Amino acid sequence: ARDTDDGIFWIDYGLSRYVVENLYLAWRPDKLFPNSTLVHAKWDNSNSPVKDRFFLTKNPQYKLSIRSMDQSTAEKKNSYKKTPIWLLLSRHITDVKDFEDNSVYLALMVFKNGRRIYGKTLSKPIIDGIRINSPHYLVKLTVIDCSEYSIVITQYENRGKSSYTLTAY
Question: Stretch 30-57: mean pLDDT, rounded?
Fold first, then answer.
């Protein structure tokens, strides 16, 4: 290894905290999760408020329904309880300048009942994600007593248009 420079090196974890700004790990969700669904979309939030702290009417919203297909009706009610659902929001970066600026702060909010959400003051989220400027945002939702949820993409400051993929595992 000393005689060959192949670009592979080892670094102590303690030192890496001072040297490495971002760390992305490759994972194989198709091997971990047999069921998934995804949507690709574009959010043109140029007419939305700069901050969506109170009004979420123009934010992208999705209804997540959890159903059991192969059990009797009585068993279906309890079959989805304590089911872990992973929600992955991936922002599409199509311009190097966008990646250099890294000024788009997105997150996910999750509400019970699967209805349209108009504002945080009217409905309290069970998950109110911290807005971060990473291209990937992962949330674990543990289903306990509800089979329908509203998933809302939220922002810190309006930056115009954003393309994204939302995947539920």
Answer: 82
